[in-house]
Amino acid sequence: MFMSVRCCFLETHNMSSLLQRAIATTLTGGGNKFPLFSITKTKSTTSAQPAVTLETATATNEVQKLQHAKAMPDNRTSTATLTDTFGRYHTYLRISLTERCNLRCKYCMPAEGVTLQPKSNLLTTEEIFYLARIFVEQGVRKIRLTGGEPTVRRDIVDIIAKLKEIPNLENVGITTNALVLTRLLVPMQRAGLDAINISLDTLKPKRFEEITRRKGWERVIAGIDLAVQLGYKPKINCVLMKNFNEDEICDFVEFTRDRNVDVRFIEYMPFMGNKWQTDKLLSFGETLKLIRQKWPEFEALPNGPNDTSKAYKVPGFQGQVGFITSMTEHFCGTCNRLRLTADGNLKVCLFGNKEISLKDALRNNISEDDLVALISAAVKRKKKQHAVSQTSTFYGNHLHAPPYQASPTYPFSSSSSSSIIHLLSSNLKHKPFTATAACFYSSDSNCNNLTHVDATGKASMVDVSQKPISTRTAEAKAHIYVGAEVARLIHSNNLKKGDVLSVAQLAGILGAKKTSDLIPLCHNITISSVKVNATLDLDGHMVLLEAKVRCTGQTGVEMEALTAVSIAALTVYDMCKAITHDMVIKDIQLVSKSGGQRGDFRRQ
C-alpha cells in the first residue's frame, strides 16, 4: 500500500527533495495507524461552460452575495446575537492564537519591532474553547485560526481536534506562513483541519528572505505541494506591492497551471506602525489589465456567498486566481466575519479600532447570558463600511480623507428573559448636561420618617413581605468630566484598556446586579431588565451615563439604577486614569421612579 502511494507522490509535478523526504517520513513513521487520506493521480479536466464576462459575473455575484448575506442558516441557534443593524449575519470567526511569528515580514511588522504582551494578558486555551463554543451556539459555522503564526503553538493539533468536537461547527481552517507545514500538516489533517490559507508574497527565494527577513522559501513551496497532494485546495495569499513584487504577478498565475491552488492577490493595506504609503498600492484594475496582456482569455468565475475575493481563471489551468480588493472595491456589504484577538478582544471590523475585551469579561466571572449580550452589543456597533471605505476615496494612487466626524454610540441592555440590544437612532445627538431644578410629586407627601432604622435608632432592613407585588421602574443618570485629551482618545478608541463606553455599559449592568452586596440594607431582588447607556459628549469633554432598571416585586429599584450609573462612571475613571486624574464625577441623580405605595416620581 505504502509503495503505491509513495509512487503517486513521486510522480508529482516539480516535487522537491524536501517534500519527498517529508512524505516518506510521514508514510513510514506510523502513518498506517490513522489512514485518513488516500492519494490518486487524475488528469485535469475542464468542463465546457458558457463564457462568463466580467460584467455578467460581477452583476451575478452581487445579487448572490446580497441574497446569501441576508439569509441566515437554517441550523442556527440564534438570530439576533450575531446580526448587525444592517442585516449582516456573522457566521465566520477568526481566532488569533498567538502574537508570535517565526517570520519578520516588512509590511506586517514595523522596523522598530513590536512589544509582545505578557502571557497573562492572552487568552488561555480553555478560554479559547469556551468562547468558540459560545460563538458557535450563536450561529458561527466556520472558525479560522490565525496569529501571529498559529503553528508556533505547540498545542495547535490539539486545538484543532478540540474545536472539531463542537457541535454545529462545520469548518476549521488555518492561515499559516507554511514554514513548518511539511511537519504539521498530516497531524493537523488527522485532527480534522478542513482548509488552509498560506501567506506567500514571492516565488523568488532571495526576495522571500528580503520580505520576511528569514530563510525558508523551499519549505513553504514543499508545504504547498504537500497540501495539494493531501487533497486540499490551499489559498495562497499574496500581498502585491508596487515596485516590489508586481513583476511576479504573471509568475503567480503560472503557478496555478499544474497546481490546484487559489492564488489570491491582496491590495497592499498599511496598518499601525506602517506609514500610509499609497504609492505602493497596486489596484485590482491595474493587476487585471497586466494579466490579460499575457492571457487575454483570463475569465471571471461566479463567486460564492460572502466571498472576499473576485475569482478568475485561465482556461485549462488546474488552479484559479482571486483578487481581494479591500482598498479600491470594498466588500463590506456582505461581510460575515468577526475577529477574536490573542488578548481576547472582539473586533467586528478589520479596519475598525473599536474592540471589546471578552477576556476581561470572562475573568470578572460574567454570566454566559451577559457574555452573549456583550457580544451582541459589539456586533450591533459594526458600521456599514470599514474605516477606509468611509473616510477615503481612491483616485489613481491617492487616498483623500474627509474631516473628522463624530459617530454615535449604542446602549447595551441585559434582560432576565432575553439579551436584547436597543440601538439609538444614528441621528440622536446628546447635548451637554445642565442641572435643572427638581420637582417632586408623590401620592403620599407626608411620609417623612426614615424606614431603615428601628425604634432605638439602629440600622434595620425593612420588612417588605406584606407589600403588594407590582412592576417597579427607575431611571438614573450621571456624568463624568474627562477633559479634552481623554475625550479625544475615547472617541478614537486609542486608550490602552480598550473601548471605554462599552466596558462602562457592561460594568453598569454588573453593578446594578450587585447592588444588594454593596448597599448594606438593600434587598436582594430579581431584576427583570437593566439598560445602561454611555455616550460621549465630545464638545463638553464628558461621558454621559444613563440607566433604567425594571423589576416585578415588593420593593423599588432606585438604588439599582443609581448604582449602575455610579459604577459605570467609576469604570470610565479607571480606564482613563493613566492619562489624567483630573476627572470629576458629577450629578448622580434619580431621574424617575414608578410603582410602589409612595407613587411615582419624576425630576423635571
Automatic annotation (TrEMBL):
Catalysis performed (reactions): (8S)-3',8-cyclo-7,8-dihydroguanosine 5'-triphosphate = cyclic pyranopterin phosphate + diphosphate; GTP + AH2 + S-adenosyl-L-methionine = (8S)-3',8-cyclo-7,8-dihydroguanosine 5'-triphosphate + 5'-deoxyadenosine + L-methionine + A + H(+)
Gene coding for it: 106087346
One Pfam family hit: MoaC
Any single GO BP term: Mo-molybdopterin cofactor biosynthetic process
Keywords for the protein's UniProt record, in alphabetical order: 4Fe-4S, GTP-binding, Iron, Iron-sulfur, Lyase, Metal-binding, Molybdenum cofactor biosynthesis, Nucleotide-binding, S-adenosyl-L-methionine
Lineage: Eukaryota, Metazoa, Ecdysozoa, Arthropoda, Hexapoda
Pathways involved: Cofactor biosynthesis; molybdopterin biosynthesis
Subunit and interaction comment: Isoform MOCS1A and isoform MOCS1B probably form a heterooligomer.
Entries under PROSITE patterns matching the protein: MOAA_NIFB_PQQE, RADICAL_SAM
Protein name, per record: Molybdenum cofactor biosynthesis protein 1
Job description of the protein: Isoform MOCS1A and isoform MOCS1B probably form a complex that catalyzes the conversion of 5'-GTP to cyclic pyranopterin monophosphate (cPMP). MOCS1A catalyzes the cyclization of GTP to (8S)-3',8-cyclo-7,8-dihydroguanosine 5'-triphosphate and MOCS1B catalyzes the subsequent conversion of (8S)-3',8-cyclo-7,8-dihydroguanosine 5'-triphosphate to cPMP.
Protein species of origin: Stomoxys calcitrans (Stable fly)
Protein EC: 4.1.99.22, 4.6.1.17
Cofactor: [4Fe-4S] cluster
Family per record: In the C-terminal section; belongs to the MoaC family. In the N-terminal section; belongs to the radical SAM superfamily. MoaA family.
Radical SAM core domain residues: 85-297
InterPro entries assigned: Aldolase_TIM, Elp3/MiaA/NifB-like_rSAM, MoaA, MoaA-like, MoaA_NifB_PqqE_Fe-S-bd_CS, MoaA_twitch, MoaC, MoaC_bact/euk
GO MF annotations, alphabetized: 4 iron, 4 sulfur cluster binding; cyclic pyranopterin monophosphate synthase activity; GTP 3',8'-cyclase activity; GTP binding; metal ion binding
